Amino acid sequence: MASDCIFCKIVNKEIPSAFVYENETLVVFKDISPKAPVHLLIVPRKHIRSINDLTAADQPIVSELIFTAQRMAREMAIDTTGYNLLFNVEKGGGQEVFHLHLHLTGGYGTK
Ligand code: 5GP
Ligand code: ZN
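Above: the input record for the complex with zinc ion. Below: its predicted structure, written as tokens.
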């Protein structure tokens, strides 16, 4: 837990936020400023700054992020129309919150 990290505060429920899904490894919630009709953030409970900071021990977390994205896409019914998965990495890569998170965006349909 990083005391000044907004996603740690959300994960620990210090800031109220409705989770779309949660398990012992991660939580999923809606992006406050959605860039697509569906925009979810898949966030590990563990504070990891970015993809750069992953270690081999974090492999199960990374795997769970991806499989949760697959599951969420199916549950939001955007799996067949299509979606994007995105990790922004550090400031030059567009990262603004320095707690690892996977963006799931989609829902535009096919037309
Ligand atoms: P980044 O640019 O770091 O990859 O993405 C951070 C995302 O977190 C942004 O899309 C932003 O809208 C979202 N965000 C920032 N603060 C909050 C918050 O307090 N609650 C929620 N639900 N999303 C947030
Ligand atoms: Zn954090």
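Notes for the reader.
The chain has a mean pLDDT of 96.
Helices lie at 6-11, 59-75.
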